[in-house]
Amino acid sequence: MDIKRYLEQKRDEVDRFLESVIPGAATPPTTLHESMRYSLFAGGKRVRPILAIASAEAVGATSKAILPVASSLELIHTYSLVHDDLPAMDNDDYRRGKPTNHKVYGDAMAILAGDALLTLAFELCSRSDLMDGLDPARQVQIVRELAYGSGNLGMVGGQVLDIQAENKDIDLATLQNIHKHKTGMLIRAAVRMGAITAGATSPQLDSLTKYAEDIGLAFQIADDVLNVTGTREELGKDANTDAKRGKKTYPTFYGVDGAKKMADECTQRAISRLSSFDAKADPLRELARYITSRKN
Amino acid sequence: MDIKRYLEQKRDEVDRFLESVIPGAATPPTTLHESMRYSLFAGGKRVRPILAIASAEAVGATSKAILPVASSLELIHTYSLVHDDLPAMDNDDYRRGKPTNHKVYGDAMAILAGDALLTLAFELCSRSDLMDGLDPARQVQIVRELAYGSGNLGMVGGQVLDIQAENKDIDLATLQNIHKHKTGMLIRAAVRMGAITAGATSPQLDSLTKYAEDIGLAFQIADDVLNVTGTREELGKDANTDAKRGKKTYPTFYGVDGAKKMADECTQRAISRLSSFDAKADPLRELARYITSRKN
């Protein structure tokens, strides 16, 4: 299969859907909606929504409910970037090649736009009218996965650990724990939410969860490597920022080549988790490979 | 009925429930959970949860599901206070008589604790194990009410309007629009969520919604009046801050006495919305009176 074409098609589907459900920049309060849209439509690759879609496809379902479910993950991801970039947090000026949200709209609006994107993610998952007849019990389960993956024991918890580790001499176990939460838990939620939308059996959900945990780790190692090897043009943001901040990363512990090898091993392990799935899981297999080979 | 005793009993019930479901300060990441608990257990009156509980009682149900549903509103309310107090927003140093969250834990942790409280609100509403057999379709509806009331077209939208109005010569319609969103929409959600949990009929839900809109306005007018007439000791935060910031409020337009009269009229109107309810709605009736007579 042509993974590049698949990624483009699904990204466009997610973008069209988001465009249709996010209030226009003319809806009051206009600045809030403008600010939300600025970061949401800044050219993200929609990796998490596409993982949810591919996971649903692997299970075999074709419900329209997958679009709101998948898109909610991008709202969470975007809010986390807007808040992470704030001066009180990472203090980043550029993101995806554009000035960060607070550089354009100010800190107060960036905080509120993040809060609104976060909240809208849950609104999207609770819209019965968009769920194509999905069993409400399953819908509740999806909301819970999203909250668990993105909250105090998931992504936000990981961000706390990350901030606390800056300029500290952390060990490998701590680094792994940060990544598991900061990046891994939302990727895990994405894959599980897709699977639950499609009515996965319990063994299917278990296999897909393990797949998600493996690619989550691969994703973060690859991110760490890109931070060292990528250029500002490729990344759309400043390069080599981790080293400048004294942050420990996988390349710090294993070198760039060692880290690349680890990411490849995670990818192979992820693919092996899908052995009981047929060709409908090929997008998931290709996504695992894409995650370690991407350039941004 | 003894409304003071009712308020104390329900507040304690909500507090005990929150205590049982919010991770302890020893659960990693410990600083995050400490910070969340610091603001959550700072002595709030739990007005929104109690409104949800009283609304469910008015309809006549006694499901245990009301506690997680009601408590989720306090998580949303608390997160909004933590974020509103930030230097980038209102820059307040005191709240409920104690230093604000960011004064104790720093801006980054306050942002993240807010994000985590917000997310946990939705996790609480999506916990099937706490719902005492509540119909999942109704549970989905509850999640949606919470998201709608607190998001871009609700509370967050109101906060945006409020910030944009600072030091501007706004008219009464703008002031009303700010209050309707910033305070009113979450109070409306509280009453509706309680009613939906209890299985309200459509006419019951309509009446309770109108009641909620009336007390929401009364609540905000009373808040504006207290800002002028209250002392720092009574309020647990600086007094007369609105005037110092050049903020237009109901007393600006109507004077303190005129505003008090308006609040009383809203209270009477709210109570009249409950004419089709029996004595089980007495707590709602007393709550309407309490809202304009409170001292903080």
Give a nutshell description of this structure.
The structure is a homodimer of 296-residue chains. In chain A, 71% of the residues lie in helices and 1% in strands.
Ordered list of secondary-structure elements with their pairings:
The structure is a homodimer of 296-residue chains.
Chain A: H1 3-21, H2 30-40, H3 47-59, H4 66-84, E1 94-95, E2 98-99, H5 101-105, H6 107-125, H7 136-150, H8 155-165, H9 172-197, H10 202-229, H11 232-235, H12 241-244, H13 250-272, H14 282-293
Antiparallel strand pairs in A: 1-2
Helix pairs in contact in A: 1-3, 1-4, 2-6, 3-4, 3-9, 3-14, 4-6, 4-9, 7-9, 8-9, 9-10, 10-13, 10-14, 13-14
Protein model, in words:
- Two copies of one chain form a homodimer.
- With 296 residues, chain A is mostly helical.
- Chain A has a single domain (3-293), classed as Farnesyl Diphosphate Synthase.
- Helices cover 71% and strands 1% of the residues of chain A.
- The first copy, chain A, contains 14 helices and two strands, in the order ααααββαααααααααα.
- Chain A has helices at residues 3-21, 30-40, 47-59, 66-84, 101-105, 107-125, 136-150, 155-165, 172-197, 202-229, 232-235, 241-244, 250-272, 282-293, and strands at residues 94-95, 98-99.
- Chain A has a two-stranded antiparallel sheet.
- In chain A, a hairpin with a 2-residue loop joins strand 1 (94-95) and strand 2.
- The two termini of chain A are 21 Å apart.
- The mean pLDDT of chain A is 94.
- Chains A and B meet through helix 2, helix 6, helix 7 and helix 8 of A and helix 2, helix 6, helix 7 and helix 8 of B.
